[in-house]
Predict the structure.
Amino acid sequence: MIDLYTWTTPNGRKVSIMLEELGEAYECHPVDISKDAQFAPDFLAIAPSGRIPAIRDRDSGLTLMESGAILLWLAETRGQFLPPASERWKTLEWTFWQVGQLGPFLGQAHQVLKYNRGRTPEAERKCRDQVARVYGTLETRLTGRDYLAGNDYSIADIMAWPWVSRFEWQEADLTNYPSVRDWYLRIAERPAVQAGYHKPHYVNDIPLP
């Protein structure tokens, strides 16, 4: 049994989607970051960074923070969603691209374009440029293939998809990125994605372009 400490953010949804895809038994513990619950001592004992998501494996006692580490551990220990041979390295390449580029750039866009729109025009311009750049990278990679690593759905897709699901926050028009749009809709149809998206509670339907 896995204890999942999470909230309704792209990073949190990565882990709940992965757990649903695996059919893993888990208990979801909401950590309301709007009320600074991530700084409670009990949570910090599990995730010293004070950021969701985090997990605790009841069988081994292992605790892990950082969504990338959690998905890699789950993929390795369960033997799923991390393909062998050459696609393994492409999976890791695009997993780390999400951690290093897609998430940080789109997260910055959320702050500037959604929550602070109109305050700093130059920052908005830079954010829109960054959004276009990462979506352009995704479009190039997905042209002619179904998934980021190649033929197989993997943790690279599970890592990236929840960030793209906030395309409206980023002022991104998916019709400008047809391969990304097809990939996004293909994954949105998966029952495990639909279940994991609504953890720890329902906020809205999955946005559709």
